[in-house]
């Protein structure tokens, strides 16, 4: 049985802000190439532009402009590596930059390399430098991973990858910052929310969206989203959002292990398999589809299918 307890007005207001900003974040991440203006995002969230910018910073810790710019540049940094034969100007456009010159300037300011140099040696050099420090940090739960992958050629292994076309999936979700064990608390909140609404969670699919590349972004800044499929129409509430995970072609790979092991597979698929394959990464987060979720089970081990959204490469660099 699930009991509902009275909620203070302040807490309810904070949860309302979170839900409205969630809608903005979904719109931002759904297509980084579109023109994302404060006026449009504020109107969709039913705030004035001034109030929206204040609430957005309160919820995310960043201004609207800084958040969008960071997301665009981080994803561009990934695409330049994942899709090595794609023209720089095409990567720029896919990440919302309408001028090649402005993209190159912004990218070099953020990462210290031009986009072309980033592909040649910049990504590896910056990643090695960052991981060298991270591997020495005692509070980093992934320091062994960072130490073992300092060598850019290490760790790559063959995986059985299957290309499948998947349907869109409507999910309830909660966002979390950090690839850490705090994700367990997010899952508990999401499952409690579902049980209080009479949803049989055993019959639903648990999915973890991975927005960030842990070879480039500190673990405590990586973005994770805990998602649960829904059996019928359900409305957001109490800090839980509802969205659709886009379907389409995905490169799928089975995996099992314990906390931290998935990072090795993510690295192998994105940085080794994908650049050599007949496919390119789409601007949609990869996700783990859990059969056994180590964040909530007693064993601490996972069984899952990791899915990378892809498009087929065609002649001339065009994607299907």
Looking at this protein, list some descriptive labels:
320 residues; alpha+beta; Arc Repressor Mutant, subunit A; Multidrug-efflux Transporter 1 Regulator Bmrr, Chain A; 20% strand; globular; 9-stranded antiparallel sheet
* CATH overall fold name of the largest domain: Multidrug-efflux Transporter 1 Regulator Bmrr, Chain A
Count every beta strand, where a strand is a DSSP E run of 2 or more residues: 9
For the record, what is the CATH homologous superfamily label of the largest domain? Regulatory factor, effector binding domain
Mean pLDDT: 91
Q: Into which percentage range does the β-strand content fall?
A: 15-25%
- Using the 3D structure, state the CATH architecture of the largest domain: Alpha-Beta Barrel
Quick one: biggest sheet?
Answer: 9 strands, antiparallel
Gross geometry: globular
CATH class call of the largest domain: Alpha Beta
N-end to C-end Cα span: 49 Å
Give the structural class.
Answer: alpha+beta
Summarize the structure in words:
This protein has 320 residues and is an alpha+beta fold. The protein folds into three domains: 9-61; 67-134, Orthogonal Bundle (Arc Repressor Mutant, subunit A), CATH 1.10.10; 162-317, Multidrug-efflux Transporter 1 Regulator Bmrr, Chain A (Alpha-Beta Barrel), CATH 3.20.80. Helix content is 42%, strand content 20%. The protein contains ten helices and nine strands. The chain has helices at residues 9-30, 38-44, 49-60, 64-82, 88-94, 100-111, 115-134, 143-148, 183-195, 262-276; strands at 162-166, 169-177, 206-210, 223-229, 241-245, 248-258, 279-281, 286-292, 301-312. Strands 1, 2, 3, 4, 5, 6, 7, 8 and 9 form a nine-stranded antiparallel β-sheet that branches. Helix 2 (38-44) crosses helix 3 and helix 6 packs parallel to helix 7. The longest helix has 22 residues, at 9-30. The chain is globular. The chain starts with 8 loop residues before the first helix and ends in an 8-residue tail after the last strand. The relative contact order is 0.12. The mean pLDDT is 91.
């Amino acid at each position: 049985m699930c009991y509902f307890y009275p909620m203070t007005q302040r807490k309810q207001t904070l949860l309302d802000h979170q839900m409205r900003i969630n809608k903005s974040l979904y719109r931002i991440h759904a297509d980084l190439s579109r023109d994302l203006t404060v006026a449009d995002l504020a109107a969709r969230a039913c705030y004035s532009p001034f109030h929206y910018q204040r609430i957005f910073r309160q919820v995310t810790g960043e201004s609207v402009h800084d958040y969008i710019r960071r997301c665009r540049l981080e994803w561009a940094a990934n695409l330049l590596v994942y899709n090595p034969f794609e023209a720089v100007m095409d990567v720029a456009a896919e990440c919302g930059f309408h001028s090649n010159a402005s993209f190159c300037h912004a990218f070099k300011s953020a990462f210290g390399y031009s986009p072309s140099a980033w592909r040649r040696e910049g990504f590896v050099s910056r990643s090695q430098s960052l991981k060298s420090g991270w591997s020495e940090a005692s509070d980093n739960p992934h320091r062994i991973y960072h130490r073992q992958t300092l060598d850019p050629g290490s760790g790559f292994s063959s995986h059985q990858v299957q290309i499948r076309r998947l349907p869109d999936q409507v999910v309830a979700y909660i966002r979390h910052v950090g690839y850490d064990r705090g994700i367990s608390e997010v899952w508990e909140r999401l499952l409690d929310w579902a049980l209080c609404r009479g949803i049989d969670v055993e019959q639903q699919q648990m999915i973890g969206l991975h927005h960030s590349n842990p070879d480039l972004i500190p673990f405590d800044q990586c973005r994770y989203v805990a998602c649960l499929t829904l059996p019928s129409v359900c409305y957001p509430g109490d800090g839980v959002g509802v969205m659709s995970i886009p379907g389409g072609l995905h490169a799928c790979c089975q995996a099992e292990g314990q906390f931290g092991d998935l990072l090795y597979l993510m690295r192998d698929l994105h940085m080794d398999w994908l650049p050599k394959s007949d496919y390119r990464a789409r601007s949609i987060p990869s996700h783990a589809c859990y059969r056994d979720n180590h964040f909530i089970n007693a064993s601490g081990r996972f069984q899952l299918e990791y899915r990378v959204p892809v498009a087929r490469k065609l002649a001339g660099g065009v994607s299907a």
